[in-house]
């Protein structure tokens, strides 16, 4: 593979400063998909620069095609082929010398390093075979990084062979891969590349294939529903156009929307420049905390909010996988948040407060899994626990104040019930010695208080809470609502004349502790 082929004449291409640069490129902080994107960028740029000539030759229906094929058998090989305009003879010196800035930096190839960086990151040996549109020769250049460093080579041979002028392509072959992408990584590469080039796939400019499969971008479904404060109001499509400037030639355009159904893995923004995604591909959506909360938070933005934003005037990293904000990220996010929650179309408020029924498929899956787990716990414990619970005496509801305990949070609510003032005191305690999950005191309006008062205490140190709701606000919220319903139901039962109304809660506490607190 690495020897010259018969029938070729040899010229040379200068690669200075090859020795000092090429040997360190392997250690760049690339991910496989952004490294492969460097080759696709070159193909795209070649097409863009020669678009008129290519369509004059082939017609308006002609399309740029780029294929990436990964051979995972040892020692590994990746081949990238395109039908773009090829590397012209006058571009050869710049194409193979590291860090030579192209004359036009307004396109997808702007640093003069993409192909060299990505190839060296992937493999110690690689070659480029190209045929430039309108030229009568096909050229091949081979890189062996170890030999270049060892022999301090400053020039490489160009193997040339005759070819038809109307032919055009470039093929890059990466040999003896440093890391062979296999398994799930191959799927992630396909997913990320689809996202990175979604604009060009969507408008039909690019036909991108990975291991023979043509990639296509699937548009996320957008929520169509009434505003959460007007549940009987008209449906709205929760998608909003974004466009603003904030000085110094910096501007943003695109859209933000709410997914339906939600998807934690695929939420977040995709950030583009010049039509190519820079940040936010795959499951790595751009999720700044000012909009999405922190990881693990209860913000529904992490479930529903997504969008595409095209940034102009911003610089990017040399690996083109992130923006260089230069202190502009904070004002960018502040303006974006204003746009997203403007009163005329309050996207963020809808995101946080709207609730919808999950798909039947997801509900069946969750119900089946939850039922199976609960059934296992019930079957494993009830034969031992129930006799002990059944033998307990009846229990009355406590009417004196609850004994003080260390607390994590408290809340007091006042409202009117049938013309009389009521007060609910809710407490989340942190006492590991507390054996009851739910404690209440139906104090009534004694002790000189006008309001009919009930104290509700849920033990956060109880084994049941430790197992199922330690730090997740949504789980705590749901269980607190159940606890409040039980407590208020017990109070109303007493008012209706039910005796020993506390027996149900006492039995509940014992069954939870002794039988149902193991996950």
Task: Write a structural description.
The N terminus is likely disordered. The strands form five sheets. The chain has a nine-stranded mixed β-sheet. The chain is an alpha+beta fold.
Total number of domains: 3
Q: Quickly give the structural class.
A: alpha+beta
Q: What portion of the residues fall into strands of 2 or more residues?
A: 25-35%
Mean pLDDT: 89
Highest-level CATH class of the largest domain? Alpha Beta
Helix content: 25-40%
- In what order do the strands lie side by side in the largest sheet? 1-6-5-4-7-3-2-8-9
CATH topology of the largest domain: Heat Shock Protein 90
- Architecture of the largest domain, CATH level 2? 2-Layer Sandwich
Please mark out the parts with pLDDT under 50 across 5 or more consecutive residues, or reply none: 1-9
What does the largest sheet look like?
A: 9 strands, mixed
Multimeric status of the protein? single chain
Give the number of DSSP strands: 22
Number of helices: 16
Distance between the termini: 59 Å
> CATH homologous superfamily of the largest domain - what is it?
Histidine kinase-like ATPase, C-terminal domain
Radius of gyration: 33 Å
Give the overall silhouette.
elongated
Entry keywords:
9-stranded mixed beta sheet; Ribosomal Protein S5, domain 2; disordered N terminus; 3 domains; Heat Shock Protein 90; alpha+beta; elongated; 519 residues
Topology:
Layout: E1 9-14, H1 18-22, H2 32-49, H3 51-58, E2 64-71, E3 77-82, H4 92-96, H5 114-122, E4 125-131, E5 137-144, H6 145-151, E6 155-162, E7 169-175, H7 184-196, H8 198-202, E8 206-210, E9 213-214, E10 224-225, E11 236-237, E12 239-245, E13 251-258, E14 268-273, E15 276-279, H9 289-292, H10 301-304, E16 305-312, E17 315-316, E18 323-324, H11 329-340, H12 347-353, H13 360-390, E19 407-417, E20 420-429, E21 438-444, E22 452-459, H14 463-468, H15 473-495, H16 502-515
Parallel strand pairs: 2-8, 14-16, 20-22
Antiparallel strand pairs: 1-6, 2-3, 3-7, 4-5, 4-7, 5-6, 8-9, 10-11, 12-13, 13-16, 14-15, 17-18, 19-20, 21-22
Helix pairs in contact: 2-5, 2-7, 13-16
């Amino acid at each position: 593979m690495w020897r010259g082929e018969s029938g070729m004449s040899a010229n040379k291409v200068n690669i200075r400063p090859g020795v000092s640069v090429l040997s360190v490129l392997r250690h760049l902080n690339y991910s496989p998909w952004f490294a492969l994107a460097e080759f696709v960028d070159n193909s795209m740029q070649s097409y863009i620069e020669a678009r008129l000539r290519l369509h004059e030759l082939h017609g308006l229906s002609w399309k740029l095609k780029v294929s990436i094929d990964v051979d995972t058998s040892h020692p590994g090989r990746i081949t990238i082929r395109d039908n773009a305009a090829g590397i012209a003879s006058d571009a050869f010196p710049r194409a193979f010398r590291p860090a030579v800035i192209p004359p036009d930096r307004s396109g997808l190839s702007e640093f003069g390093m993409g192909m060299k960086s990505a190839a060296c990151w992937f493999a110690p040996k690689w070659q480029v075979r190209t045929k430039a549109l309108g030229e009568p020769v096909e050229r091949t250049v081979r890189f062996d990084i170890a030999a270049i460093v060892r022999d301090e080579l400053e020039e490489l041979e160009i193997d040339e062979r005759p070819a038809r002028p109307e032919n055009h392509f470039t093929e890059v072959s990466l040999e003896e891969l440093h890391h062979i992408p296999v398994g799930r990584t191959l799927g992630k590469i396909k997913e990320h590349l689809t996202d990175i080039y979604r604009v060009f796939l969507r408008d039909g400019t690019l036909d991108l294939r990975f291991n023979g499969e043509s990639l296509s971008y699937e548009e996320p479904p957008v929520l169509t529903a009434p505003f959460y404060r007007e549940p009987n109001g008209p449906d709205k499509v929760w998608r909003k156009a974004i466009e603003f400037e904030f000085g110094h030639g910096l501007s943003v355009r695109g859209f933000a929307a709410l997914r339906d159904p939600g998807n934690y893995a695929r939420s977040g923004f995709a950030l583009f420049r010049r039509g190519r995604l820079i940040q936010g591909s795959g499951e790595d959506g751009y999720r700044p905390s000012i909009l999405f909360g922190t990881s693990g938070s209860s913000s529904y933005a992490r479930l529903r909010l997504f969008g595409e934003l095209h940034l102009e005037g911003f610089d990017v990293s040399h690996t083109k996988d992130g923006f260089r904000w230069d202190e502009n990220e904070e004002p960018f996010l502040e303006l974006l948040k204003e746009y997203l929650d403007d009163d005329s179309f309050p996207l963020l408020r809808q995101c946080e407060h709207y609730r919808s029924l999950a798909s039947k498929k997801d509900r069946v899956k969750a119900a089946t899994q939850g039922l199976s787990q609960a059934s296992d716990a019930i079957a494993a414990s009830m034969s031992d626990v129930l006799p002990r619970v059944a033998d307990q005496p009846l229990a009355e509801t406590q009417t004196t104040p609850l004994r003080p305990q260390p607390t994590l949070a408290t809340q007091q609510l006042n409202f009117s019930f049938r013309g009389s003032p009521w007060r609910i005191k809710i407490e989340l305690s942190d006492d590991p010695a507390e054996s009851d999950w739910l404690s209440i005191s139906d104090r009534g309006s004694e002790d000189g208080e006008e309001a009919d008062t009930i104290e509700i205490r849920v033990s956060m140190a109880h084994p049941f809470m430790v197992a199922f709701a330690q730090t997740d606000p949504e789980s705590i919220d749901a269980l607190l609502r159940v606890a409040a319903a039980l407590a208020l139901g017990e109070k109303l039962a007493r008012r209706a004349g039910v005796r020993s109304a506390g027996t149900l809660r006492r039995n509940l506490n014992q069954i939870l502790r002794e039988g149902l607190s193991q996950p």
